[in-house]
Structures are given as structure tokens and as C-alpha cells.
Task: structure prediction
Amino acid sequence: MNRAKTAVEPPGNRRTERKPGNTGNAGVSGTSSPIGWDGRRLEQMLADREDELECTGRYCGLDHLTLKEEDPIRYEKMWSRLRGGIVGARETALNISASPVVRELGELCFGLYTPEGDSVTLSTGIMAHVHTMSEAIKHMIRSGYESNPGIADGDIFVNNDPLLGNVHNADVQSFVPIFWAGEIVGWAAGVTHELDIGAPQPSAMPIGNLSRFEDGYILSCLKAGSNDQLHRDYLKRAETAVRMPFYWTLDEKCRISGAHIIRQTVMRLIAEEGIDAYKRFIREVIEDTRLAFVEHVKTMLVPGIYRSPAFIDVTHAADKGRLPDYAARNSMMHSPFKMTVKADAMIEMDLEGASKWGYHCFNCTPTGLQGGLWVGLTQTLIPNDKVNDGAYLNTCFKTPYGSWANPDNPLVSTTLSWYFLVPTFTGLFRGLSMGFTARGYLEEVLAGYPVTGNIAAGGGVNQYGEEGAWANFEMGASGMSARWVSDGENSCAAIWNPEGDMGDVEAWELLEPMLFLGRNIRPNSAGPGKHRGGLGHESIRMVYGTREQLMFHAGNGHVFPSGGLFGGYPNPTLYRHSVKNTDLPERLARGLPYPARDLDAENSGIAAHTNGEVLRDNSLCHLADPHSEHDIYLSLIAGGHGLGDVLERDPGAVADDLNDLYLLPRFARSIYGVVAHLAEDGKWQVDTAGTEDLRAQMRRERLERSVPVQEWFEAEKAHASALDMIEPVRRMYTESIGLSAAFADEFRKFWELPDDWQPPGQVDAGEQEQSDD
Amino acid sequence: MTRKSYDKGTIADLVDGVLPWKQVKDMMSSYKDPDRFIKYLEVLQERVPWSDRILLPLGPHLFIVQKEDGRIVTKSRSGFEFGDYRKNWKLKARIFVRKTKEQYREIYTEMTHADPEWMEMREFYDPLDGTLLDIETVPPAYPLVHSFEPDLDTFYTQWLGRSYRNDN
Result:
């Protein structure tokens, strides 16, 4: 092997040595020399790579990992150098950001890509974007960016467009192409979640948008810099495009700095190992991961079909008079998640039967869906350091055109796509857990994920007298669902960030004009089961230091988005509870108790210690609601799902939950069949004999109040045939049946309806009129 | 690469959920033991009160088993048989549907359960002993969900390289 040992040249030297035709296409040109390998243009490289995969089933057609086989130590060393460099880039760069979402919650991620945009390795963080950034690079390649606007050493591109490669607009990506001797050898990229996106409504995830035109500042794979400097016109635009631009600016510097550190890492590695070895390495490591994924699937799963439908509610009926009639209505999202594990270990996911896109901000693009899949895989089937697009290459996703997951309208709003993605991908975790259970890898079994929420966001003039915006990421510490082997952990998890965290109260209070009056583990906030989910928490916020603050919620108030596992119950739904025009100024002045805990909807601590106008219902997805100083806002953060039959839960664990204030005492009997009493020491103790009797009785009652499924079927068939239900649910069925012949056929067959059965009634006139536009 | 292998006692403790967390964590972080499935089946077989051969576990209380006459059925730990394993076992279960606020509030506080007009909760019980086998949370009229349809032929013959059929 020929290993060059020359020192890496600093970027400045490289720029001075750049010659036309061998350092990329710095400007608009249709005739300049190609920047790809072997004299090819990038578009040709990507097409060749795709052909090789299609023809051989192997990445770049590699039939042997020669670098790995001939010198495995060198191979691992090269891997460690890259991986370490990228993780180090993230840990260094995040200190440049001022945003608590980035610094505290770690909502950033960096990656290294091949020239064609396939991910080679990545940092920790919001891994969903490893693949969305891959899609953005491929979009630039396929769109001929090599000619116009040109791709050159020192360029900086920026993107947050979900149509091109993103989940939602809040996540902004920066890309830096890496060159060596006139050829592009890769891309370094970074992403951060922004606090504001310049939409008409404050925050980076505003609710109530009807179309893309209300989604704020959209950067569609924009060339924003050259020679390692951002263009002045781009900087000028950013200064006034978003609220609190200094957060935006520092996040941008964070991303670019991280990308430049990665570039430096790559240059050093090439200088030490040689360009040929580097080129070979980035091919082999992706095929290596693909092979490992295939082996992992065959080791841990069982071929077959896994189904786990999910649903979630959208409650814009609360906005009648504020939104047009066609948008001011409630809706139900349907995600009929089906996962097929094939004989060759290919995993095919299918949303056939999904409901239609809507006039709300929760629509998703296919690239967003890929991001969700990616972050799911990194936590399940590729649980090692060699994470890259190799695994992704052995999956495929079917997204029906016209549905919320693949809208036939490019103008839909997408600022909060995660609201539909999270329930959808809990199906991935549930399906995999069924497979792990079948194979006996019970240590991996997890009862899905909860929908992470409440998503509290808002804005307005802040405590500094400036126009502010924020989105609180406490939901990054939702409860973990139960495992086969244990209860879920409290307040620690989010499906979209494997490093779940709630952030420090003090950091949030610096950003948000909202004091924390209390933050507590919330009893009964998890799904019960033999093992219960980890609990969620509650935060009681008081508007402070501003006259008015707009407040958003987002969360499931009317439905359980998905179930627990093996008889475990799902986590509770959420609700909103605000008190306006409160008596808190007087209470605080007189030293009277204030609401530091709420804990129980039926015996609310807020209600006990605050007087004012109460707003309390289960509608959480609607336009922002104005709050004034000293108003109270309750934010409930979800717990996890349960696993297994509640009557098999260890009674001692139920007593522990009572003593830890994790379980409200009145539910020990009705949920778990546990008889407990308060002992003289103030602790709950189990009445063992009473519990055994009660559980035996509850099992008998289960059989008495249940019926054979056939009997239930006969009673329900007429309702199903008539779609005798509330309008949002009926519309969901009408949309799914209208978009999918397969789902329509499944519905008819199950309910034994005639082949020509169609949903009765008409689609809502307002919807029809808008759809025809 | 060294592959670990665990004894049956360890697998049994894992099934029972009593394996110390440190060992569970080590299992999670290690390469998977390729002989797990065989030992797992042996552990489970010793614990069921019937002799039909377990081919594939579907959950804590449900198994795909092969009967002496060669038929392959879904069977519960209590001994109830749900019929051909390729059919949805739920069709032969008993069902209780929570579709009122009062029924939801046996499990959830007010404000924290689904709206019955939007969603119902279907509980599927073992007809013999009342064990809660599975729960569906779906809108009214949703077809029963066939959660898992394993491809036994591919699994045994192609992935494990062994036969599973007893054609007596």
C-alpha cells in the first residue's frame, strides 16, 4: 500500500493554489472540468453508484472488502480517526451556539458523506438528519449544482427545505464540500435545531400554518458562501429573516465550524493514508455496515409481516373564526404502519392506507420520513459505532402519493412533521420488539415510544423587551416505555434524539419569559402493565417579565396514538390547563401558597392554589393562545407505554409506586388489583391475601364482561358499514379508502361488505373544493 | 470475533425479568449469542403445561406450536388453541371494548384518556384464564390488527437451516 505521509495543508494554502478546472466549479459554468472521480461529473458518479447497487445488490458493486481483509487494524484505525474527528467536531462546535436547544439538549449532529451523498460516519445527536442531509446533497447533485451554481473548495451550502431533504423547517443544515487534488472526496455537514424560523407566528415549530407560504424562512439548498466565508447578501437576509438573529448566527457558526473541523480531519487522514486508500475506505465501510445490517436482521428478527397502526388528533376546530372554514376543523391522522422482513433481510415499510395531507403543519415529505426511519434504526438494528447509509440501503419505504406522508401538493406546511412521524415510527419499535421476542433477545424488547410532548412553544416580546420566540425541549425527556425486563425509566427519552434530556430550568428561564413554579414527576403519567412505562413530568410555568406571550401546545388529547405491548396499556393522553388573569400577584405579595405542583387532574394543585379564568380541555393542536403576565400554563410531558398484563405486576412494585407518589392510591385496585393500606409509618403496605382474592375476582370479571370476538363482530358490522361515527374519524376512513384500493379491500373483507361498498356520504364540501384547486 | 453464549439458567432469568441489570446491560452491549433461540425454546417448553412443540413465541403467553398430528396452531400458556397460526389469533379470543369515559377511568384519570368518540380500547383475553393478551387502541370500526404474521418456512429452512415440520 502506498501511504502518503505529507502534512496536511491548511485551507488557506489550498485556496491560494486553486487553479481553474481542478478545484471545483466556483461559479456558474456549464463547461468547466468535472469535479468527480475519474473525470466524471458528480451526477454521473451518483448514477453509476445507483446502477451498481441495483445490478449487484452491493454498495458500489464491492464483492470483497479488501482493505479490511488485508489490513484490519489499519481499517479500524481509519474508522476511528474519522469517527473520533466527527464526534469531536460536534463536542467542540456546540459550544459556539448560544441556544439551550443546541447546547443543553444536544439538538445538533454532524456527518461525513461520500461525494455522491451517502453517509460514511456521523456524530452523536439528532441522527435523524444523517439521512436527510444525504437527501439534500443528492438533490444538489441531481439538480446540476456542479454547473450552476457550481461546487468548489471553500463553498458553503445551506438547507432547511423538507421537500429537498429535511424533516421540518426548524432544522437548518450546512454543507461543505471537501476537495483533494481537484477532486471532490466528500461532504462535511452539520445540522442544528433553530429557536425561530421567521414564520408569521413565533417559534421554529408554529402551529396553524395552512401552507408552505406560512412556514417561515425556507432555504432550498442555497449556496450561501465561498472561500470559507458566508456571502454578505446571505448574511444580510438572515439578520432580518428570523426573530433573535444572534441565536441563528451563532448556530450557523457552530455548524460551519464543525464542518470545517471534519474537513480538516479528512485532509489529515488522506495525507497520512493516501487518497486511494481513503477512496477505497469510504466505499468499504458502507458496504461493511450493509453486510452487518443484513446479519443483524437475520440474527435478531423473524421474516414475516409486522403491523402496528397509529393515529393522532389535530384539533383546529378550536380555531373557528381564526382560520378559514376548510382548515378550522378536527382531523385524525392514520398511519397503517406495516413492516415486512423479507427472506434476504430487506426491511420494507409500507404506509398504504395512510390518510390524506391536510391544511395544517403536520404533513411530511418522503425525505422527512427517511429521517424518522434512520433515527429508529440507529437505536435498534445498528446499535454500534459503524452507523452509516449501509443499513439504510437494505430498507425501503412505500409512501402512498397524496397521503400525509407523500403529499400530492408541494405547497403543504411541514413545520411540525414530527407530530405525525413519531406515532408512525413507534410502530417500528413495536414490530422489532415482536421479532426480538420471537428470537429470545428479550433484553432488547421495548413497548414502543410515546409521542413526545407536550410541545410547548411560543413567543412575543420577551423579558428583555425584544421580539422573542422559543420552543421548550423538555419533551426530549419523556418517559421511556417498559421493557420486557423492567419498568421504563422516568423522564429520559425521545424517539428523535437518543440522548434525551429536559434541560436545566435556569437555561430555559434565560430564554423564555416563563418562570418554572414547579417541575415534578407526574403520578399516573405512564401506561400501566406488568412493567409500567417510565413516568413523565409536569412543569408549571408562570408568564413573567412581559405583558403578553403567545403560547402553543402540541400533543395528543383525544387519542392514544399507539398501544402498549403484550397487554400493556398505552400512556395517558395529554390536556391543556391554563389559568388567566390570576390572583398570583396578590398571593405572592402576601406570601400565600402558589401552585408548585398539580399532580392529579381530579385534584389539581393548580386549581387549589390559583384563582382566575380556567382554560382546560383536550385540544392541544391549534393556533397560539395569548397569555398575560402571571398567567399559569401547565405543560405535561408524556410517560411511556406499559408491557404485559397488569394483574401480573409484582404487588410490591405497586406499593413502591404508591410510596414514591408515582401512582395515585385510588388506582392500585382498579388497575392492578392490589389491596394496600397505609401503615403506621406512613408507608403503603400490600395485603397479600386480599390482593390474591381481588386479582382472582378481576380475572373472573374479565371473562364475564367480555364476549367472543365473533359476537362483537356481528354487533359492530352495521356501524362499520354505515361509518357511524364522528366526522373527523369518518373523514379519516373516507380518505384512506379513497387513496388506497388495498386498504379499501382490507376494510371490506374484514367487515364482510360487498365488493362495491363505498363509504356513505360525501367528503366535506370545503375539503373537496380545496382539493380540486 | 468472540460470540458469547449463555446458560439456560441465565436465559430463564431473562425470561422471568429477574436477571440483574448489569448482566442485562452486558447482553445488550455484546454481540448476540447465536444459540439463544434454541435455549430460549427449551426454557419456554419446560414451563408450559402441555407437550406440543413450541416453534415460535409470540409473546409472554402466546406461542406458535406444532401438534402431534402435524397441525401448526397458535396456543396460549393456559392451553387455549386459537386455530391455524396463519390466522389472526384475536378472532378466537374474548374481547372487551372500553368505549365510555367510565370504562376508561378504571385505568386513567379524567382528562388523560382517549375520547370514546375518537377511539376505543379493545382488550383481548385468554378465554380460559382471563389473561390480558393484547390491547388495540383504534378508532371505531377499525379492522382487527393482525400484529405479526411470521414466515415460518423462510425462517426455519433458510435462516436457521433446519426443518421444523413433523408430518406425522
